[in-house]
Write the structure tokens for this entry.
Amino acid sequence: MKRQVDGMVVVVLIAAAAVLLKMAFLNGDPGSDIQLSHGDFRSGPVVVKLTGAVARNGIYFLPEGETLAAFLLTAGVDRQDSPDPGLPERTLQTGQAVAILSGDRIVIGEMDAAEKLALDMPIDLNLASLEDLMLVSGIGERTAEKILSFRNDTGPFRTVEDLQKIPGIKEKRLSRLRKYFYVGNPSGKSDPSP
């Protein structure tokens, strides 16, 4: 009986700690003057990562059509100069990573596969590495190797449905995998729309 009471006390303490942590993350510290500009899913459908020599690194949820210049202002980054005059007016897309490098150089790339998958975003089937593929639920090392081998032997995937050409991937398995992938267009620009 004492063990059951001790167990219940531990469960109640853990639950109370979880509730307090959730409240702290959702509401922020009321005594703090810092307001994070990261937003949430209600802020916008465009998901972008900010890294580098800035105070507010992280994942941001932006409205559609947000330019790099507007995003940097929102994130509290004062540096707007760029050797590419069109860069500040470039519209950001879901899955991009904006890096502020030494010398205040700005580079726009892609978030890594693990981050995209954690945020329930698809990854490009033609750019995924062995490790990236193995992060996908339902793909082990052997299947990932088969996908890479197919891609190396026949060229880039044209559609996600081409996965059915891989031994062991039939319609039912493809239906579970489809949400994890997209095929980038030939121009090299990503089009994550399924």
Residues 25-37, 186-194 have pLDDT under 50 and may be disordered.
